[in-house]
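ZP: hey, is the adenosine-5'-diphosphate complex queued? I don't see it on the tracker
AM: it wasn't, my bad. submitting now with these inputs:
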Amino acid sequence: MSSTSQQRFQKRRSFLWQVTWCVLGVAIVAVCTLSVAAFIIANAHTEHAILAQLSDSVATKENLLEARLQQDRERAALLSSWDAVRRSAMDAKKSEAIESLFVQLLDEGVPVAGITVFNAARNPVMGIGVPVELLPKTMAPTLLIPVVGEKGWSGHIAYAQIQDDNGMVLGTLAIRYDVGALLQNILSVSSLGDTAEVLLGRENGQNLILLHHRYAEEVGGLLFLGSLQEEYDESEFLAKAVRREEGMGRTEDYEGADVFAAYRYLPTFGWGLVVKMDVREAMAGVLALRATLATVGLVIILLAALLSVILARHVTEPVRTLSTRMAKLQPGYWQYRRSVHTGDELEVLDNVAADLAKRLDIFSKDLEGQVRQRTKELSMQFQKDRAILQSIQHGIVAVDAKGVITDINKSAADMIGEKEADVVGKPINSVLRLTQHGKFISTSSHPVLRCLTQKKAVPTEPGIRWSLYRVSGQLIPITISVSPVLARKKVLGGIAVFYDTTDERRVDYIKSEFISLASHQLRTPLSSLQWYIELFGSAGEPKLSSVQKEYLQEMDTASKRMAKLVDALLHAARLEGNNISPANQKINLTEFVQDISEELRSLAKVSKISCEVQIPKRPYMVNTDPILLHIVFQNLFSNAVKYGIEGGQVKVSMNVKNREYEIHIEDNGIGIPKKSQPRIFERLFRAENVLLTDTDGSGLGLYISRMLMENLHGSIRFKSTEKKGSIFTITLPKTVRKTPKKKSSESSQ
Ligand code: ADP
């Protein structure tokens, strides 16, 4: 890892930042959780407390109101039993007592507005203050009736029957109370808050009427809230209270504001009583708490951030020191001195790192020594190998898997005519330029490249005449073999070994020249010998005995065989000297093969061998030299017969391929032993099995055939199994490429 990428890596995943974020994360979560919990608890608690307070308040108000009304009712009952009141009911003139009673009540602070006395005939007989005009239709001993005016509940009247001692009804005392002071004192809820309000409501026909509310002055007293049933259905607290229910909760008031409220039923009047308070005011404390919590939480988080950085720095300091010092360790620098003394796992780690660095130092020094020693040895070995390579007389070239020269010895460079250093790194086919039988070969036919693609050795091929084209333009005859360098079936490269065969070729040439000369010289006496033998035989000399005739026959056979041999030798010599230029004649190959097969059929018949010909019916035209092709065909056919077995078979067949025609000559004869197969096209070579059977032959037929096929741009190959038979195949290209003129230097080889 490079130092910059290491730094980047550290920044991204710094232990310090991880710890900081951890601590800060914990602090944020804790603060947020505590704040939210505190807020929820405070909210619930406040809500509960307010509702309880409102509930208390509505209960207190109801009790006070009921107590007061009860008091007013009882007062009326008590006063009705007074003699003065009784008398007033019976005698309207005695009114001073009522007046003094009125004054006395006012003095006592009772909010009495007026006193009226009715006689037994329900007529008012006397009154003081605000009069009471009518009596209720049905009367009870005491009765309390509220007075609701246009501006709401203005007061109430307490009725009490005036009876004599015998219980006879003398009349009715009606005391009218003013409710203003009562409302002010009893229904005041300012202690609960600014928005706290007491509502009094009652049923009027089907409607719900609000008797007492904050806006009584502005709206002119009563406020119609709508149908009682509908309001009840919508859970309007006042409607519920009017319907004799009691409870508390959160609701919407008649103004549409969100309020906490508690409600109760006032049994005396059959009214509903509600104490309510705006939620916003009630929860103002909680909202303030929320703001405080948020501020405090933020401050705590900031402090926690600061603290976490300090804490993390402190905690991670040894780790960071450790990692910085460990990062410095690298090959060549294994110095590490212990520095952490925290007494915890870090100290153990520091200890281990120091120990490891020490070991690595020793190990690397040891390794360096070994490497130095080994390098020296390898260098010496290399020098030795190079010296061996350079001293080898054969040319040696090493190539990589792509055929690029990686090494070359002096002999090879000298043969090519280049300096060793100049050819290393160049493609082999541009340096080792080869010709075969006078023609430059294609890249794919180069033996080194063939070896690399086929992944197998290309041995010295007998009969193939390789020549090396030197930088100077001169051609050197060579023999070349190439071996692949394989590692687990993968080609790493190849080694080509070649050597100059100029001397061998010269000897060959001299041999050929000699054979040619000797054959020429032998031909003339041989012809005259044959002529005389024939003359002898044809003259029909009767004096010749049968033994003499037999000898004559022997002589004839021997001279013919010798003539054949001389012909073959001459042929071979001519081919070797490249003295043949094939004709380019258009022939019908089908017809050609058919004709020649028929011609040779008789040869097979003599040896009691059947002949089968399987060739296509349609004509196939080809440009070739029919005379040379005839020689090849005759050689192969006569071999098939010669090396066939009695009663055996020779089969001639032909097939057409993409670019060439193939002619097969197959026999089921003695076959060629595996050992002899690689040498079968060599000059004068005969397989060991035929040598044993002593068949007549020179070992030149196939040698000549191969050279002829090369001249015809075709090829010859075979497959054979000993004692089972052989199949020889010759190929002819459908179209023949024009060949460049032979180099003058090649023709001299
Ligand atoms: P030869 O005159 O000996 O036949 P060739 O060059 O024609 O010379 O053949 C070389 C050798 O190849 C033969 O001596 C023989 O051993 C072997 N040979 C060639 N053709 C056949 C064949 N059809 N069956 C078996 N061996 C064969």
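AM: back. Residues 635, 639-640, 643, 667, 669-672, 680, 686-687, 690, 697-703, 726 surround adenosine-5'-diphosphate (CB under 6 Å).
ZP: great, adding it to the tracker
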